[in-house]
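dude i think i finally got it to work??
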Amino acid sequence: MTMNPHISLPRQHGPPPNFGGTAPNNRSDGVRMPRFFKRLFKFPQMDFEMAVWEMTSLIIAPKKVFRSIYYHKQTRNTWHRPDPSFTYLLSFFLLLTSLAWGLAYADGFVKTLRIMLVFIFVHFLAFSLLVSTAAYFLVGRLLGPGVPGLPGRRRQGLFSQPGESEQLEFGYCFDVSIRAFFPVWVFLYVVQFVLMPLIASNHWVSLFFGNTLYLVAFGYYTVITFLGYNALPFLHHTELLLVPTAILAVLWFISLFGFNLPKHLAPVLWAGAKLRKGV
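look at this
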């Protein structure tokens, strides 16, 4: 007797297949929990290797970071990447730098702890949420598809669902914001900390170098934000997002006439501690 394997063919009117995503929800009145929140504490499933690659590319070649979103859109049906590994990794780096800033410039454990909390939850997370919320409403309506005369004027969802038309997702706005923050961390939380004794001195060369550091950091933030939204095919005139670079250049030139940015905007000052060593 020969045994032939039985292969069942898919039903003609059966449910759509699920390629790596969450199980389809056939309830029309229910609301699915976004995959980002489902994976929030599933550390073994997080792709930290991908997060490290993105961090490296954001400094060297930031355009590469957003080239893979088309593949992600085809396989997951969402522009948002539901993997919090980048957020966790950058938060950990901010934790380490906050310890360095606290040990160098804060008096006591309480102020050091305050710097740690402010760096992670205010500077990084709260600021990223604020920027992503503003971008979600402004970019989605002003640069997205919509009715003539008022582009993007339509319903927007926090996270796209299967079968929905192209729309700007809040999760993707947050992805762009946290990735744009990484160069800010590199230049203002790491490089500035190492060179603080030099750039905070009372010399014009120190003023020039310190202020240029802020120009580069915020310039990176603007360019990465532009690249993130420019990668979405349904957004138009995204070059308008580069306008802040001209404003930053003008403010940088004005600051060279005596306004030392590190003395007024150093990250540890935002946390309420006072800099020592002549600052």
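The longest helix spans residues 109-142.
im so relieved honestly
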